[in-house]
Give the backbone structure.
Amino acid sequence: MATQSKVKQTFTTARNLVHDVHLFNINIRSRELYLHAQFEDGVEEEAGVDYRMSNTFIKNINILNSMGNSNILIHQQTMGGDWAYGIAIYDALMACQSPTSMIAYAWSRSMSSITIQACDKRILTPNTKFMVHLGSLWTGGINQEVYTDVEESKKSDVVMMDIYASRCVDGPFFSQKGYDKKDVKNFIKKQIKEKIDWWMTAEEAVYYGFIDGVLGSAGFETIDKIRKTKKNRRPVTVD
C-alpha cells in the first residue's frame, strides 16, 4: 500500500508539473520559464509579443525571485511583436535579482532579439536565425498626433540601438577592431539601412556580440553548463 501511495503521489506531482508548464509557462521546481505566444483555438499565426505574454512572464519571474536567487532559465520562441510589452519583459529581466540564461529557438528577431539582451547568458540553438531591424509604425489622426507618434517611435529606435550596442561592444568583431559604443551603433545602423532586415546565423550573431554562444558549441555544451553563470547585466544609458 505504501508503495502504491508513493507511486500515486509521484504521478500527481508530475501531472501538476506538466500542468504548470503547459498552462502557466513555469516550472517552479527547475526554475525554468517558457516565453512564447498564447495558444488560441482557430488561430494559426503566432500572436507575437503582446500583453498576455508580458503579464504572464512578469508574474512568473517575480514568483521565482521570491523563492530564491539561483539561475532562472528562459526558453524563448517568438517572432517578436509589440515594443511596449516587449520592453516590459526586458525591464523585468534587467531588474531580476537572480542570474538569468535564455535559450532562443527557431529565431530571435525584432522584439525577441531585444528581450534576450537583458539576460546574463544569451544562447541560440544551432539553427536559430537572429535578425534586427527598425520597428514598424502605423498611425493616424490629426497632424499633431501623427507628429507625436513619429517622435516617440524615434525615441524607441534610440533605446533599441543603445541596448544592442551595450552588449555588442564586447563581441569578437567589435572588440578586435577597438570599436567604442558609438562606433558599434553606427555599424548596426549602417547594416539596417542597407539590408532593412539584418539576418544572421547563430554563429554570426555570436561574432557580432548579439549572442554569447550556440547550444552544443565549446563552452555551451549542455544546459547545466549554460546555467552556471553570474549576473553581468549593466544599466543601459542612452547616449
Q: What stands out?
A: The radius of gyration is 20 Å. The longest helix spans residues 143-168. Residues 17-226 form a domain with the 2-enoyl-CoA Hydratase; Chain A, domain 1 fold (CATH 3.90.226.10). The CA atoms of residues 32 and 73 lie 5 Å apart.
